[in-house]
Known about the structure:
alpha+beta, seven-stranded mixed sheet, binds adenosine-5'-triphosphate
Amino acid sequence: xxxxxxxxxxxxxxxxxxxxxxxxxxxxxxxxxxxxxxxxxxxxxxxxxxxxxxxxxxxxxxxxxxxxxxxxxxxxxxxxxxxxxxxxxxxxxxxxxxxxxxxxxxxxxxxxxxxxxxxxxxxxxxxxxxxxxxxxxxxxxxxxxxxxxxxxxxxxxxxxxxxxxxxxxxxxxxxxxxxxxxxxxxxxxxxxxxxxxxxxxxxxxxxxxxxxxxxxxxxxxxxxxxxxxxxxxxxxxxxxxxxxxxxxxxxxxxxxxxxxxxxxxxxxxxxxxxxxxxxxxxxxxxxxxxxxxxxx
Length: 296
Ligand code: ATP
């Protein structure tokens, strides 16, 4: 199975709800940067991980892919003794929903392995229990997310977006970034991004220049407060001719929009040369959500 990374092209964060989540309005896009998850029947539930940041991923029952296997096993009456192997390409704690991608891949994989033939909606319903981003990791494409991000409406857009991802280490904890936002809002007025109308119009018209201008993320000031070095990375990307640059979700990954694939490759090379980030990846979007693929 493989499942894609996500970006938030627009993320407005509303009030803190009594259940500890924030109300969100977000525009997700799935990117062609994937984790691969392999499931094999075994004597016990195990998790092994390889790839970038593998040492930061839990190998016990708290791993989101393991939680997905256990949840679906309980819901469908199947045996959760599965060996889970994850090959990570999505940055860990990078604001690109890597853990959610692994959970989505595990849900799709269990459904195939057990022949339970659940609908995407049933899988998304289980996914929402595991994390707010899991339904989108299943869905893929470009979608408007509301609620805590788990209620999805597909966004009809045309064209391809060419992205460069600038990865930073160490990762940022999503709860810590939300906590910093709450702290900033408590301390005084904080600028907020407007509604997603401009992003949606730009996507509809396949207008990359307008999309670059309209990218917005309410979590960005909080991520910048916790990781001030990201500001110069954002500035550098814009000075190099990016159409837009934004902190992805809770960061610290910075997503840089280029006008076309050739320019994106050049931007990736230039950002690598500047040495301000740990690694640079090229990825285009939108792509499909979690899918069964042949192992390779
Ligand atoms: P999001 O954008 O959804 O807020 P993120 O991309 O910032 O998340 P993740 O890579 O999903 O962050 O990981 C966040 C934390 O979740 C990690 O630090 C790790 O401890 C834990 N975790 C649990 N399962 C996984 C997994 N399969 N892959 C990565 N991290 C996992």
